[in-house]
Amino acid sequence: MAKIVRLKMNISKLKLLSSIEGTSWLLLLFIAMPLKYVWAYPLAVKYIGMAHGILFVGLVYMISVMVEKQAISKGVGAKIFIASLIPFGTYYTNKTLLSDA
């Protein structure tokens, strides 16, 4: 019973991190990049880009840990990773792949 509760907590953390990383990706693409290339304000990309990079590395690490602990399958882990490269992809995986878990 405790293992199931721990598993659900880990998947909840994965969903949360995935959502935060996806939001940082959208901020980078749709706010920071236009600020840099349209209005010549590169500082937005510097800070939002760094935050997004750290969150992305954290997401990849968490996916690998979850696959290693067999909380999610390798296929689901690969789908989450690929979706994290696509804008709005993390929201899709949270709603479809991780909703059952």
Distance between the termini: 15 Å
Helix percent band:
over 70%
Briefly note the structural class of the backbone.
mainly alpha
Biggest sheet statistics: none
Query: Roughly what fraction of the amino acids lie in strands?
Result: under 5%
> Rg, please?
15 Å
**Helix and strand succession?**
HHHH
Q: Give the quaternary arrangement of the chains.
A: single chain
Number of domains: 1
Q: What is the overall number of helices?
A: 4
Shape: elongated
Give the low-confidence spans. none
Q: How many β-strand runs?
A: 0
Mean pLDDT over the residues:
89
Structural write-up:
The protein has one domain. The model has no long low-confidence stretch (mean pLDDT 89). Helices cover 80% and strands 0% of the residues. The protein has 101 residues and is mainly alpha-helical.
Compose a concise summary of this entry.
This protein has four helices and no strands.
